[in-house]
Amino acid sequence: MSGHDEIEGVAQRYARRAASVDRYHPLRADVMATLQERQRALRALLLDHGCTDPAALRVVEVGCGAGGNLLELLRLGFLPAHLQGVELLPERLALARELLPPALALHGGDACALALPAGSQDIVYVSTVFSSLLDDAFQQRLADAMWRWLKPGGAVLWYDFRVDNPANRDVRGVPLRRVQELFPQGRIAARRVTLAPPIARRVVRLHPTLYAVFNALPLLRTHVLAWVSKPPT
Asked: Given this model, what pLDDT does residue 105 score?
């Protein structure tokens, strides 16, 4: 499969997913519980790796969507002028432009073609992107571009699910062994997060606090939040 074919495939898969957009709305109790859990885990991961002065860090998010993750980084103290996002789908990019401050640079199109200088970024953030890329060669092409943008000592900040979803052929899980294949020079520090969404949807109907109860069982967590460090030299 060519890179162009995979890009077209991604656009088609996201178009099909748009029909169920209400399932991911933050006003849903299960979605809010998931977001809050991930925010806490992200904060802890950043602190664990010495990110105590976020205003000094330069970050680009691959697949920034409508800008929700970048907005979270702003709330954590990252500066708009030091943040960038790249998004393939024009309609999602337009939403991000409405939400985010003008000083935050946003780019449209294929992230692999983004002309970022090598070694210019402290963090490259990627959230539930690689699970939507079904072509191994395209995955590696994107991973190589992300690694090239990173400074020595920088890191890929990764969030994605690690197991296949048999009900959705438009995605596939990305286990940690695959993350290591994509970034063979990287040192991975990872934690399991996110209660399996079908379980989360069911239990929060009974009571929102049951999310934390069920999420206490690591085997029920379907996603990985990881810090993939680039060697300092």
From this structure: 98
